[in-house]
Amino acid sequence: METVSLSSFNSIYFTSDMPDVAVSVPSGAVKSHVVMSCNGETFFDEMLWPSDGIITLRELGELMEPLAQSHLVVSLTIQAQGMTEEDTETGALESSTSTVLFSRADVGTSAAEFYTSHFLSILQGDKVTSHGRLEYLWYYGQDDATVTAEYDDGTTGFFAALKSGGTSAYTQLDVSPDFYEVNGKQLVTYTVRAGNRTQRFVMDLDCPDCAPILEFYNSFGVWELIYCTGTHKVSPEYKRSSARFGGKLRNYRIEETRTFKADTGVLTMAMAAWADDLFRSDLVYVVNVVNGQVTNLDGGKEVVITDSKSELSNDDDELPRFTFSYRYAQRIQNVLQMNRVGRIFDNTFDHTFN
Fold it and tell me: What is the pTM of this model?
């Protein structure tokens, strides 16, 4: 792990790649009063003793991760004041402030270089999408975003991307393909640009049914959607506890667990590497489909991934597809889909499944 001096700790860092910080104890001091604050609120205030005149603050990324995750972008200030044995201040107060960005990925470059040239996703290639789907992109900053759409007749359309959320520090775009469809033409691809960032979407013209549709927190702490096109199964299990009451055997407790088994369908190699972010996510929701349209997170049920298989190889005939199991996070597993009467699965299934 890289170590920097406190005086040079004034850059932009991801939580996944924060350096250790070395604090020098001034002459005449035997310890240092170290205070760390996040967005102006103190969360660390301790007297620390040096080794060979140096105090090293380690694992700052792990310390900052919960704080950065809740805001995505935070300001970290470290102050150090030399102290005598009698707790008298000595030497100048050292202070340095850095910007910390949430990340659980080793991006292989500096945070400043990455966030100015990439959207907040580990996807490194085209994303396959289809009519009726929601698609989001996130990035740090407020750069204007544009969309270039290409159609089956060789023509091109230009659009302003819809800013659907964010703060002064980052931006969320809604880049769903339906925004760029034109009567009489078939949308084939579209490319989103924001500053130096580029993401290309390729249309699946077969418009396959999707189940499940899952929304998950990715490695940068923002929402992404994955549309599974393979087989979807549900396997309820019941644990029954019984005893005799009045001479008759009764079930006095029945515990139900509904386990769903899903298949992503065939993926491109780029999307296969990206899909692993679902399996490492700590917050996943089933997304609703209402009147044939994907809605946002509201009303979706939180689920927990309980098992996954995501093997990849370099075989020429490799067709990557992943399988995984999930269950509802809540205790009550008997979930009614009131707007999908008679359906046997969750509400991501198209009517053609029944």
Answer: 0.86
